[in-house]
Amino acid sequence: NDDKKLLAFSDSVQDAAHRAGFFTGRTFRFNLRGAIQQYVKAEGRGLALDRLPDGFIDYWQPEMGDETFIATFLAPDMAWMADYEELKKTGRIPTDSTLLTDIKRRIGWEIYTEYGFRCRIGRSLEKTGCSIAGPDEKRLAEAVTACLDILRNEIGALRDLDTERLERFVLGMLAHLRQQGGVHHPILSGYIENQGNTYLLNKIPWMPGFGMSVRAPAFLSLKRVNRNRFDPLLSSRAGRPTWYESWAGKCFDPLSALVTPQIAPIYDIVLKALTGAGLLVETRVRDNRIWGIAPQALVISDDVVQLRCRSCGYELSVPAANERLWIGAPCLRFHCTGTYEALAPVQDYYGKLYASGDIERIFAEEHTGLLDRDTRENLEACFKKKDRDPWDPNLLSCTPTLEMGIDIGNLSSVILCSVPPAQANYLQRIGRAGRRDGNALNLTVANARPHDLYFFAEPQEMLAGDLDPPGVFLDASAVLERQFTAFCMDCWVQTGIAEGAMPLQLRHVLGNLEKVNPEKFPHNFLAFIENHRTDLFDRFIDIFSSSLSQEAVAHLRRFVEGHRDQEGSLAYRIVDGL
Hints:
Number of helices: 23
Mean pLDDT: 91
Low-confidence stretches: none
């Protein structure tokens, strides 16, 4: 498919407008994930997370060029920026613009969150088995070696602690902290120093918004702070352990029942070792200590193993290099007592899409009858042109206004977001695609309503239904009268009427009715008809050849030739209607 355009039909204006925004917003991340994964496959495996954004930019920007790079990777909530509007209008980035720099910063943030804050949300690279960020093995080994003997000697309950159990404990800690977003991105320094105040993040123009109740990156904190924005290490309430206390119990309780009172000194030793090995970054804020994962200590791997808890079914993705440590390890979920087992490898659809799909941003616009003519025609022109700008719409979320009568160019695909009301609507809509070479892909979504479900069960009823072409009874007097009036209007305009011949506002038209002035509308229009009555009548009748009956022609002649004071005549009907 070399024609990256699509029509998506809806049955109402509201649905079409809503879906246009939905398609644009929700597909941005799919496109970005594909670009990240393809870079990882090409050059990114084994890189530290802090080096991945620059490598990604150096990989894609030269290939795309600045304009396409901006349009492809501009986040939907940055489309309001004035410099981007100027780029779309003129095709050039303003000289003093920071747009490209801001987009590169946002890409860096999105890559960090893809492997951290958002790694378990939606069809992420981690959950689809594409790639994952895991702790650097050398740093991990250094940290474990540094604290193993200290824990054995200073914590009596851990005198029988072995390397594998300690490694599991540390891996679980780091996995939880990473999933909570506790990765030390440079932009988060002020956020950390203010102990989770998202107001500071919202002041950065290129950052996504964080509301008071919206999930935000959660670092490990010695104390409970700022409405629990950060994860406290130890509980301040008896009988209500924190996640970190619960995790220590899961890992070390099998060694001794006396571990619980010694959890604080255990973490003190482990956190010191992890910080010394460069796995964690510690920030001291007054009488509090906050830890986050050092991005240079997370390494990207495209060899991912999927695990599942035997008890609760919670799934986890881990680097293949750590698989042996995670098999049989405690579940990361707070209250679950189960352990992990490996899942059989499967081909994930989205994993395949990310690895091999085209990097093509979806720009959706609504096409409905509510748009004014100029806007609608400009939209259609941008959609149809072959040499399109990178930001031109390539998906029209449309109503039945695009079913027929409009040339929308060559298409190979159409989506019907619901089953159309009738077979004629269905055939008209799918007929938009395949005009270039006869090949088309048409998808119809059946919603959970009786009409859609009936045709979902009996698709041949829709596919093979009779098509009733629109018809009209030509001898109908009302139809002829309206069509002839419109024909006269077209002919009048084609003569080259003056700019003020037809007022822009109806109040000016109504003000002209009392006094007959042949230079004011509607009297100028009626004068044109009267002066060219015979010619207009003959040309209109010739359009239909011999299709009209003699009675219909006679009726239309009386309608045209009647005086403006004669009820039922053309002139009378126009003035009386106004």
